[in-house]
């Protein structure tokens, strides 16, 4: 009799896991408490995989020998409690896929901020150098789907703490930890150390020949490393010229002394701006070197990289004023990075659903750089209270086309209009992508109207 695997959640991750489980000869059942997207239903049907939606039928789930759950399902969910009570093993799709990669290698990236950029850049540097590499995890297609369909030499994974929580034997050949700041604490019993431990699950199983790249200036990482036995080879990255670590910014260039290679790269030779992207770039370049990419190929790759949308994305220039979409900045830490990326006067657009922000973290930068704050949200009182008297002028709107006109009127040639909201988007938008897309579209339409192009 075939071993039975039940998959909870039928998004990209769950569907990918189902395809891999079916390909490996398991009896597979998929259960989603919500509605399954049509494209995933069609795939499940095409591969003869049984599924249900709108409920979890316990009789069909609790007879499994292994459960693969979506990272979005919390431990406190009723069905998970029952699975645990039945002593059925629960893992994540990435852990499942990892068990079938053979001699392929993994570079895994985590951190509270900067994961996506670093993952995409690492993938780009390897791919543009001609390596056999797949992009997976929180970006691209699920790892399980790709393992099921094709063999790659390398998998570059963006991993959230939720995905790391679902690993048991998983160990990347290269692990990158960018930073740790409070986030998702509702999933970690409001205990910061639980969240820190989740991030460090990245290196839990790593071996001496493998490499752990981390940002040495991050206070949380630095403190935790003092009490933690680290088995893989450490590659510290720092913005401090005096740090003496192998990969650092010397005040002018990023310098690398890694895997027997010594070289330097100026940020102007890359497509990314801001100090946070120095960290991301140093981590990605280090990973690429360790994966075997030649330095010249890395330098070429850095010139052609395009970041994911909604991350300090230039979306147009009108009357000499640059409009930048940083809609992905849904917390204050992300806005710190955004403000640090520009020396020009800013018209700053912020607002939405506040996630318990401490605006004191950015008050000094805002005071120095922001000439006008435009609040885009249903309730802007906290923002107005925080920055009244700090910013010379505060305006507000709930309309994106009006917002863009207000910003153009407030700016002067050489200024930057920066959408970096510090808040979630759900009061006025479907998600941060929708917010950024609407902003990009409104800028393009206003530009066309003014310039007639």
From TrEMBL:
<dbReference type="Pfam" id="PF21377">
    <property type="entry name" value="MurD_N"/>
</dbReference>
<dbReference type="GO" id="GO:0008360">
    <property type="term" value="P:regulation of cell shape"/>
</dbReference>
<keyword id="KW-0067">ATP-binding</keyword>
<comment type="function">
    <text>Cell wall formation. Catalyzes the addition of glutamate to the nucleotide precursor UDP-N-acetylmuramoyl-L-alanine (UMA).</text>
</comment>
<keyword id="KW-0963">Cytoplasm</keyword>
<keyword id="KW-0132">Cell division</keyword>
<feature type="domain" description="Mur ligase C-terminal">
    <location>
        <begin position="310"/>
        <end position="423"/>
    </location>
</feature>
<dbReference type="InterPro" id="IPR013221">
    <property type="entry name" value="Mur_ligase_cen"/>
</dbReference>
<dbReference type="Pfam" id="PF08245">
    <property type="entry name" value="Mur_ligase_M"/>
</dbReference>
<keyword id="KW-0131">Cell cycle</keyword>
<dbReference type="GO" id="GO:0005737">
    <property type="term" value="C:cytoplasm"/>
</dbReference>
<dbReference type="Pfam" id="PF02875">
    <property type="entry name" value="Mur_ligase_C"/>
</dbReference>
<dbReference type="InterPro" id="IPR004101">
    <property type="entry name" value="Mur_ligase_C"/>
</dbReference>
<dbReference type="GO" id="GO:0008764">
    <property type="term" value="F:UDP-N-acetylmuramoylalanine-D-glutamate ligase activity"/>
</dbReference>
<feature type="domain" description="Mur ligase central">
    <location>
        <begin position="109"/>
        <end position="287"/>
    </location>
</feature>
<feature type="binding site">
    <location>
        <begin position="111"/>
        <end position="117"/>
    </location>
    <ligand>
        <name>ATP</name>
    </ligand>
</feature>
<protein>
    <recommendedName>
        <fullName>UDP-N-acetylmuramoylalanine--D-glutamate ligase</fullName>
        <ecNumber>6.3.2.9</ecNumber>
    </recommendedName>
</protein>
<dbReference type="GO" id="GO:0051301">
    <property type="term" value="P:cell division"/>
</dbReference>
<dbReference type="GO" id="GO:0005524">
    <property type="term" value="F:ATP binding"/>
</dbReference>
<comment type="similarity">
    <text>Belongs to the MurCDEF family.</text>
</comment>
<dbReference type="GO" id="GO:0009252">
    <property type="term" value="P:peptidoglycan biosynthetic process"/>
</dbReference>
<keyword id="KW-0961">Cell wall biogenesis/degradation</keyword>
<dbReference type="InterPro" id="IPR036615">
    <property type="entry name" value="Mur_ligase_C_dom_sf"/>
</dbReference>
<keyword id="KW-0133">Cell shape</keyword>
<dbReference type="InterPro" id="IPR005762">
    <property type="entry name" value="MurD"/>
</dbReference>
<keyword id="KW-0547">Nucleotide-binding</keyword>
<comment type="pathway">
    <text>Cell wall biogenesis; peptidoglycan biosynthesis.</text>
</comment>
<keyword id="KW-0573">Peptidoglycan synthesis</keyword>
<keyword id="KW-0436">Ligase</keyword>
<dbReference type="InterPro" id="IPR036565">
    <property type="entry name" value="Mur-like_cat_sf"/>
</dbReference>
<dbReference type="GO" id="GO:0071555">
    <property type="term" value="P:cell wall organization"/>
</dbReference>
